[in-house]
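Side project, low priority. Logging it here so it doesn't get lost.
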Amino acid sequence: MIPHKFAVGQIVDFDMRSQPMPKPQGPYAVVRLLPADNVKSRTYRIKSDAEAFERNVREYEIVAAR
């Protein structure tokens, strides 16, 4: 199993360098680590208090919040 970069409970936000499209303001909390077959497919469930739903994101789409 490939280790994930972020942990459950960690606060993250979208990386605007790789995602120029507008996204809702964070921060987001990592709520679940999803299984990964390779480094490029590491995926997370994240949740913002400003939204009623969770999002699936790839690891390259997010960064640790400051």
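Brief comment: DSSP finds no helices and five strands in the chain.
Revisit when time allows.
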